[in-house]
Design a protein that fits this description.
The protein is mostly helical and 139 residues long. The chain has helices at residues 3-18, 35-39, 42-53, 71-77, 82-92, 103-116.
Length: 139
């Protein structure tokens, strides 16, 4: 590799690590859900999720499920995808088997989680499809 090519490669690496070149990786900071989508599922969250995930509503003597907002949540999902979260919600929640969530429910609940973690809203609702598999959680 010539001197010019080496300098060019080094310059690109420096620009990429400094954030001056935008990453093609979409993240939760890119507005991947709508506020209306998140708000339409608040009743479902209250009926299905809060009894385990909201420490104030967990039955006495029962251990709360992992939090869905805040540093602990973000640390556990950092560098994982929104698609993974949606699949976890759809396939394993609620873990008492009291109901079955649809793909749309999982997408909407994920939107609510993004809203509660103060990620920016976008113009289009989050969908339970391959695109969600490429959206990465960042803090």
């Amino acid at each position: 590799m010539g001197v010019r090519a080496t300098l060019f490669t080094a310059a690109l690496a420096l620009l990429a690590t400094s954030g001056l070149i935008a990453s093609s990786q979409k993240t939760v900071k890119d507005g991947v859900y709508t506020k209306a989508q998140a708000e339409r599922v608040t009743e479902t969250y209250g009926k299905v999720c809060a009894n385990c995930h909201d420490p104030a509503k967990v039955a006495a003597g029962k251990k709360p499920a992992p939090p869905l907002a805040g540093d602990l949540f973000l640390d556990s999902w950092k560098d994982r995808t929104v698609g993974e979260l949606m699949a976890t919600i759809k396939l394993t929640m609620p873990n008492d088997g009291s109901m079955t969530l649809t793909a749309d429910d999982a997408a909407d609940l994920t939107a609510l989680i993004l809203l509660n973690n103060k990620f920016p809203e976008g113009k289009d609702p989050l969908k339970y499809d391959d695109a969600g598999k490429k959206i990465v959680f960042v803090k």
